[in-house]
Amino acid sequence: MTEPEVSGPGRAAPADAPPTGVAAPADAPPTGAAALVAALETLRTRLGALVLALDAPGVDAARAERAAVLAQLDDYLLPRLRAQDAPLLVVVGGSTGAGKSTLVNSLLGEPVSAPGVLRPTTRAPVLVHHPLDARWFSTDRVLPGLARVTAHTGAGAVDDARDAGGRALRLVASATLPRGLALLDAPDVDSVDAENRRLAVQLLDAADLWLFVTTGARYADAVPWDLLHRAAQRHAQVALVVSRLDPGTDEVVDDLRRLMDEHDLAAAPLFAVPESVTPDGLLPETAVAPVARWLTDLGADADARDRVATATRDGVVDDLVRRADALADEADRQAATDARLRAAVAGAYDDAAAQVRAATSDGAMLRGEVLDRWQELVGTGDLLRSVEHGVGRARDALARVLRGRPAPAPRVEQAIAHGLGAVVLDAADAAAVRAHAAWRGDAAGAALLPDLDLSRASAALRAQVDAEVRGWQADVLDLVREQGARRRGTARYLSFGVNAAGVSLMVLAFASTGGLTGVEVGIAGGTAVVAQKLLEAVFGDDAVRRLTALARERLDVRVDALLRAEAERYTAQLDALGTRDASGATVRTATRAVERAARDERAARAPGAGAPATGGGTLRGAGSAVAVPSRGGAQVGGRRTEAVAADVAPRAGFWRRLLGRRTSERDAARGDGTRGRETRDAPNRDAPTRDAADGDASDGTPGGDA
Question: What is the pTM of this model?
Answer without folding.
Answer: 0.72
